[in-house]
Every structure is written in C-alpha cells, then in structure tokens.
Amino acid sequence: MADRDWLNWDRDGQDWPYREASQFVEASGYRWHVQLFGQEAAPVFLLIHGTGAASFSWRNLVPFLENDYRMIVLDLPCHGFTRPTESPDLSLEGMTTAIRGLLHHLGVKPQFFLGHSAGSVIGISLVNATRHAKHTQDPTPQIFSVNGALKPIRGNRILSPMAKALFANPLSASMFSLLAKSTPLGNNLLSATGSRIDPLGDAIYQRLLGSSGHVRGALGMMASWDLSHLNAMLQRLSATLHLYAAEDDPMVPPSSSRKAAALAPNGHLQLTPTGGHLVHESHPEAVASWMAEALQTAKTNGADAA
C-alpha cells in the first residue's frame, strides 16, 4: 500500500495520548509503534487492544498502572501506526509470532497481559506459546481480559467470508475510509459499542476509520481470525485468567467470558452492569479497581503476582 494509505505520525499523531512514550521499532516484518512506560526493573505488563483500535484505547488506564509496572503498549500489526515491512500474516498464529518477535527484540518477558476484545485472545495465545516453548522457568503469568471475544461471534460463517472478500479487494478499504470521512459512519459505529467515551477518543477513532491502511488491517484480521482451537487452548491454560465483562456490551456478549471462565482451570469472572464494549475507556476506574483487587487476591493466595 502507498504511504498515503497509512496514518502519518507527524500529522496524525500530534495529539496521540502519551506521545512522549512512543517509539518505532522494526522487528518480525513490521515497523511497530510501541509505547513504553515505567521503570525497567518493574514487572512487565503487556497491553493488547482489539480489532480496529490502537494503543490509544488504553489511555485512561495508563495512570493506574504506570507507577507499579513496566508497561508495553503496542499498535497491533497493520493497526494504528504499525506498518508491515513485508507481506503480513494477520491470523492469530501470525500475530502471536510477530508479537513474540517484538518482545524478544525489546528484551522483555511480560508477566501480566491485558487484552480487550480480540486482544484477549492474543494474550492467551501468547501465554500458551510461551509456556510450551523450551524455556518455561519464568513465573506463571496472569491474563486480564476485558470484554474478551473468546468464542466465534454470531454470524461468523457470514462475516468471515465477507471480510475475506472485502480484504481481497484493495478498493474496499479506500471506499470505507472515504465514506467515514464524509458521513457520520464513525459516530454510528462508536454508538454501536454501547460506550460513551471522551472527545479525544472519538476523534482518534474517526481518524483511524479514515485511514484505508488501518481499515484494511482490521478487515485482514477479521478475515484471518480462526477460534476453532480456542476452547482447547483455554482448557490447558496454566495461567490465571481474570475476566471482566459488561452485561450491556452489544458487540461481545458476556456469555463469551462466562464460557471462558468455565473452561480455564484458573478462570475468574466479574460482571459489571454497564460500560459497553469499550468499558476500559468509558469506566477506567472500575476496570482498574477490578484489576487491583484481582492482583491482590492472587498475591494473597500465593500466585506469582507483583
């Protein structure tokens, strides 16, 4: 894709939350946009956004974590400001491999993983891949999932082929981004999340939808997504899985998290009545309180917490 199809950091990143923490790193076939927070000696927390979002979606949770953890906040492959330097593999396996390569390049081993929506699946996949590698003497990690998309979405047999068809046509993303710039499409999509977020978040989501490179990345991720092995992955998960789900989420039903909690040997679910799909953006203090309580409980019970 041409440069004009992607977001430009000098132009589009001027008001990016925590811009001063941003770095650009080449690894695993991508030029990654990552943000690094905290002291290098602190336990590492990796934050993984969902499909169609970017690192900015964690802006309201950063203040609750940055004093106690070394945080790695990334833009997923072909999302936000992360561009491919070779042909991208946007499948779950491809993204897992790419992120592991990035973490190796940065020289970090996360002990904690926080994922939203599809980012929760990536966090589980990363832990699963790491624990089945040769070197497994590190402390058992903990995974935090916010409105995790942890089972195939309704209509998957229709939406996946549709996403594949749209992804196969490069004009689809361009048409979508042009439509987003000239109509209230972005506002309608944000309304569909059931969440009320701040004006800066609104503006950045609109900007992302207006980038054909970003839109194509989201379509490619949806087209490549296969959760047929997720149940088995959950059943053999050795890490503690903390799940937080909003009962009014219109995009990912809380039953997704409920089922995952039942399958994972160390799964724990907390439901909240409100917040919508972007609850980590609309109610960050509630999500932070849940995380703090879960970490304290794990520490009291003798788990490998900070």
What Rg is obtained from the alpha carbons, in whole angstroms?
18 Å
The shape is globular
Total number of helical segments? Answer: 13
Query: Residue ranges: pLDDT <50 for 5 or more in a row?
Result: 154-169
Query: What percent of the residues sit in helical stretches (DSSP H or I)?
Result: 40-55%
Decide which structural class fits the backbone: alpha/beta
- Arithmetic mean pLDDT: 87
Quaternary structure of the protein: single chain
What's a quick, concise take on this entry?
By secondary structure, the chain is an alpha/beta fold. It is 42% helix and 16% strand.
Name the descriptors.
single chain, 306 residues, alpha/beta, 9-stranded mixed β-sheet
